[in-house]
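Consider this pair:
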Amino acid sequence: MTAFGVFWGIFMLIIMMGSGKGLENSVFDGFQDFATNSAFLWTRQTTIPYKGLPRGRQWMFNNEDMKALRQNIPEIDLLAPRLQPWSGNGENNVVRGMKTASYDIFGDYPDFFKVDPVILLSGRVINDIDILENRKVVVIGNRVRDELFNPDENPIGQYIRIRGVYFQVVGVFEPKNKNMSFGGDKEKSIFIPFTSLQIAYNMGDQVHFFAVTGKNNIPVSIVEKKCMALIAERNKIAPEDEQAFGHFNLEEEFRKMRGLFTGISTLIWIVGIGTLFAGVIGVSNIMLIVVKERTKEIGIQRSIGATPWKVISQILMESVVLTSLSGMIGLVLGVGILEFINYQMISSGTEAEMFKNPGVDFNTAVTALIVLIAAGLFAGFIPAKKAVSIKPVEALRAE
């Protein structure tokens, strides 16, 4: 029963750490393949009057802003402007034959596929020549293909009509990361070369938002602030009018998540070790009783020449064996339960979005083992000290 306290402490520590890891895996899976050193900028209404211009002014990025950012901010690695004139939640905007549907339409540069990579199922993605020659080509999502084309049809080379303009399909993709999206369902999206979209629909030099990444070892937050300052100056936006920009810093969100799960892991260790410590106290108490029961035996050992260290090592060894054996059972059982849960989730295909691959790694198991040994030594220290403090003559007289 005393050993059960140690078993339960290490068992709960493993279960809590495995569950925390499952939650962490599911959250960071949402960042998978996405450039975590990226930031996104878009425009909103101004809130401060500036240089004779009123508050509440609507404004928009333009092509010259894009050129200025590339020329004046050397810390930028990738700069990907984007247009999104129509979303997939409105009226039908795409036609092929007798089929019509509503999809998210994007105008992009090739660099955007480096920020948010895709899995190419067939064909190719947008390239620099498409941009230079304003080609009327599109890359479509896998669900767009499934809805507009028959299963036995090859969409590559076929034409679809978007808002009255025909475009040739040159690629079919599947998103690598389905959890993060800027502008709708990526599987039901259509990508058009940025310049082609501007020209085909007479959009002038509008840019709806920018995706930007920082060079190696340069925080994207620095790049983000420089971009906002430069664009604000070019478009007569008050420097202190932060509400005039919409922005999202993925690197900052990633760092917050890391800090959150570090805190969760620390809390789990504190609670688990606290529970384990309660079991260790029980082991220490039982070892004190053992020492009391063996007072005469210890006296005989001392009288025939046993050294204090011999007595101490005997008590410590019993304590370590007791805690280690019960703790190892708890460790193995905890890992086994986590592996069983993981196996059941994978084999049944019911892997939850907020819980993925629960388990503990080898380093965690080794750390738990070290904690067990240390706990055993701690539990036996006070009883061992009491054992050697008994004088042999008094011990022999004990009843």
